[in-house]
Amino acid sequence: MLPAYASLPEKAWFWLFRIFNVLVLLFLVSPLFAIVPLSFSADSFLVYPIRAFSLRWYEAFLTDGEWTRALMNSFIVAPAATLIATVLGTLASVGLASREFPAKSLLMGILVSPMVVPVVIVGVGAYLFFAPLGLTGSYLGLVLVHAALGVPFVVITVSATLAGFNTNLIRASASMGAGPLTTFMKVVMPLVAPGIISGALFAFATSFDEVVVTLFLAAPEQMTLPRQMFGGIKENISPAIAAAATILILFSVALLLTLEWLRGRAERMRTRKA
Amino acid sequence: MSESVPMPGALLAADGVPLKARLARQRRLRQLKAVLLVLPLMLFLLLTFLLPIGALLTRSVDNPEVAAVLPQTGRALAGWDGRALPGDDAFLALAQDLARAKEEKTVPELAKRLNMEEPGFRSLLQKTARKMPLAAGEAPKAALLDIDERWGELPYWRAIARNGHTVTPYYLLSALDMQQGADGTPELKAEEERAFLSIFGRTLWMSFWVTVWCLLLGYPLAYWLSQLPARRSNLLMILVLLPFWTSVLVRVAAWIVLLQREGLINSALMALGLTDAPLELAFNRVGVYIAMVHILLPFVILPAYSVMKSIPPSYMRAAISLGDHPFAAFWKIYFPQTVSGVAAGALLVFIMCIGYYITPALLGSPEEQMVSYYVAFYTNVTINWGMAAALGTLLLVATLLLYAVYQRLVGSDKLSLG
């Protein structure tokens, strides 16, 4: 807060700075608030002002075979990719957490690289490599590449959690007679789980938002929701897209709340320890 | 070695083995266990990520057409110096190769490939192949020159000779607006034939400005949030994280709604009387910049925020109490401590920018398309794998170089998300 004795330029600066930042925050959220109401418009165009409200675009979204199939596909591909990325990523992070690991930073660089390599390159490469194997136009091919794209997020979050893990807890547990399995389930898991879950959520969001690889690898039967939206925005942008967008925004709110809850939980556990 | 007689005084484990040896064995076991845990993921990434990228890289130099369809011609031209027309044997080999190609229906792929090298080659080959095979006893050189006098021109023969190998620098050179000159050395193409250098330039230029805007908007906001009490900053942080977690497609759609001619921003500007006619905000560079900055801004804010949170406020207070103006204190004391963290975030934004495809494709005109767009274009539209792969290879090289710098700056084990 501004002290009462602040001079005029100080006051002006203080308020200018605030206004600037509030505008930036507004810039960040305004698109989301702009598109949601349009999904309830009865109009056939995505324009304001909204003259009449209706749920017809949600009805269109939920009864159109293409949209529902895309939604279904997204809910097939994303969980499968998340499962693979999370299991393999967690195992690898546990291995990498060992102090004696050879060439650790190089390996970490490779494991994280799917995050920085442009997706177009991954998409075209996957197409070239998978086509002779018969994996293009299949769910399997799509799931495998989406999983690869999700791996860095799992490795980063789980590694970060493991770095803060006190290995003396394992020794303490063992010294009190717990077997390795009990130690893992009762001591390691509760402390590491938030990292794994948030990594999994990142991996899920990555697959759930992925267009480019899908563009190259998927046949019409494997169209995912973002891919369907990409086609929709490109051809004619209708309020059905606003309905799909609103559903996706609700989805990201749910993801965000879960993550915040996890973060809060981890923080509480840490402060309790201290 | 563990069987050796222990030195007097050496520590022994319970079973009599020297402790040092036991520890070394334990260490190796732990190492093995760690490697075994990482192995499945490495194998998985090899199959789903590294080998596909390898396939792309090899495609950028892959040149099977001429070597496969004109094998005899290739051999006949092996020692040719390219200065005068090749001898009769080369004409004969070409006639024989083309006769076989006509039978095996491989002329079109050859024609497509050679036409890239020398415009007009497609029609020349099709015309010649139609007249194949030559009648018995016909002199091949005279016959070919009779079918089309272009067989008497050197550039066509040079194009064949250049591509006798299954590996070619052609695509990579083309992606850099270069070509092989008459003597085979790379040279820059004529001004009007250049295309890709300006696309690379545009990609870097646009990425640069997006990064600058992200810094200009993100740094002050991160600073403000880091100074607020935890409760309020957490609440406001949600406004940063919510768009961060929202699908890129949703955000692009939303920006189209806001920026189009009949969009909210134009209606607002006109209602306020700031402009009479709607401004062109979408489907041009302004729209692409706005949407890209919106998408990438959290990638600057989040790391900047976490760096700023770790700077004790006492430094600034000390500087001010010693008589520094708050601005000077900020510039001399606070800002230098944030540079490395913020620079890392900015570099990450730049790296992500140069690979952007979706946003320019949906919100830009042809003038805003970046390298990724042309990779997709050559893959999907013209089906020119070599060109797509070459552009992709150069984009990948640029990305990996920047990534190496980033790793230097941050250290890969210190990467964090939000």
Automatic annotation (TrEMBL), chain A:
Which positions, given as ranges, span the membrane? Answer: 12-36, 71-94, 106-130, 142-166, 187-217, 237-262
Matching Pfam families, A to Z?
BPD_transp_1
| PROSITE patterns (alphabetical) | ABC_TM1
Where is the major localization of this protein?
Answer: membrane
Which CDD domains does UniProt cross-reference here? TM_PBP2 (cd06261)
Q: Which residues form the ABC transmembrane type-1 domain?
A: 71-259
- Mind telling me which InterPro entries this protein's record contains? MetI-like (IPR000515), MetI-like_sf (IPR035906)
Listed under GO cellular component are: plasma membrane
Write down the membrane topology.
Answer: Multi-pass membrane protein
Q: Does this UniProt record's set of keywords contain Cell membrane?
A: yes
Query: Keywords in UniProt for this one?
Result: Cell inner membrane, Cell membrane, Membrane, Transmembrane, Transmembrane helix, Transport
Task: List where in the cell it is found.
Answer: Cell inner membrane; Cell membrane
Biological process, per Gene Ontology: transmembrane transport
Protein family? Belongs to the binding-protein-dependent transport system permease family.
Q: Provide the protein name.
A: ABC transporter permease
Question: From which source organism is this entry?
Answer: Crenobacter caeni
TrEMBL record, chain B:
Q: Which residues cross the membrane?
A: 34-57, 204-223, 235-258, 286-307, 342-363, 383-406
Q: Which portions of this protein are annotated as coiled-coil regions?
A: none
Q: What keywords sit in the KW lines?
A: Cell membrane, Membrane, Transmembrane, Transmembrane helix, Transport
CDD domains recorded: TM_PBP2
The record ties this protein, via InterPro entries, to: MetI-like (IPR000515), MetI-like_sf (IPR035906)
Gene Ontology BP terms: transmembrane transport
Residue ranges constituting the ABC transmembrane type-1 domain according to the UniProt record: 200-406
- Please name one Pfam family that this protein belongs to: BPD_transp_1
Q: Which SUPFAM superfamilies match?
A: MetI-like
Q: According to its record, what are the GO cellular component terms?
A: plasma membrane
Annotated localization: Cell membrane
Which superkingdom, per the lineage?
Bacteria
How does this chain sit within the bilayer? Answer: Multi-pass membrane protein
Which Gene3D superfamilies did the record assign? MetI-like
**What family, per the record?**
Belongs to the binding-protein-dependent transport system permease family. CysTW subfamily.
Q: What is this protein called?
A: ABC transporter permease
**Organism of derivation:** Crenobacter caeni
